[in-house]
Write a structure and sequence with these properties.
By secondary structure, this protein is an all-alpha fold. It has 7 helices and no strands.
């Protein structure tokens, strides 16, 4: 089942709810769908994980005791005024569109500068994280290389001075152990850095979709 079909059926099942509560439920499920789609999960799989729509609607309706008044005898019930259907958005006149376009053109030095500044900041954060990770890997490689080089040098000078050779061997083994320990931590740090950058880019990329839903799109249009 696709998102449009899911929200169509859900809208029919929870029609007794106030418009505000329906909007909250739409936003709740849409946030879940967007987040899981960003994680690479198929839309049909996400919708299927919600379970049966009848059960969802029954559970939601049961959380509103005021709806039980509908179960009273007919002569005791108060007439319920139906919700007004959402009105179509008003079309802007050509003059307003021209004024908006002029405002965008005149304000372009400001908003273009802000967009460029935000892009530079984002790029700077990514470059800084990558540079730190690379610098730590270089430091770790230096520990390992110096340790192995020291071991080779210690074996080389054993005939000239065994005591000094064993001392160099101990120092070299220490650097090798330190390098191996740092390598384990660097692997985890690299994975976390990649995940953070992916999360940051995915979050920024998902903003237009979420704003589009909040403004209204098809069956998911907010009822005011």
């Amino acid at each position: 089942m696709k998102r449009d079909d899911f929200f169509t059926l859900l809208s029919e099942k929870i029609s007794p709810l106030p418009a505000e509560e329906r909007n909250k439920l739409y936003e709740y499920y849409n946030e879940i769908i967007l987040d899981k789609k960003d994680a690479g999960i198929d839309e049909d799989t996400i919708i299927a994980s919600f379970g049966d729509i009848d059960e969802i609607a029954a559970r939601v309706l049961s959380e509103y005791p005021e709806l039980k008044a509908e179960q009273q005898p007919v002569h005791q019930q108060q007439p319920v005024m139906p919700l007004n259907p959402p009105s179509s958005p008003k079309q802007r006149s050509a003059a307003v569109n021209v004024l908006i376009m002029i405002g965008l053109i005149l304000g372009s030095p400001v908003w273009l500068s802000l967009i460029l500044a935000a892009a530079v900041v984002l790029l700077s954060v990514i470059i800084t994280i990558a540079a730190l990770v690379i610098a730590f890997w270089i430091m770790d490689a230096a520990f390992l290389l110096s340790g192995f080089a020291g071991c080779f040098y210690a074996f080389w000078i054993i005939p000239q001075g065994p005591a000094f050779a064993f001392f160099c061997m101990g120092i070299s083994l220490f650097f090798i152990g330190l390098g191996c320990l740092c390598a384990v931590g660097m692997v985890k740090l690299s994975v976390l850095s990649v995940r953070f950058i992916r999360w940051m880019l995915r979050t920024i990329g998902a903003l237009p979709h979420r704003k589009a839903f909040q403004k209204g799109d098809g069956i998911h249009e907010k009822i005011i």
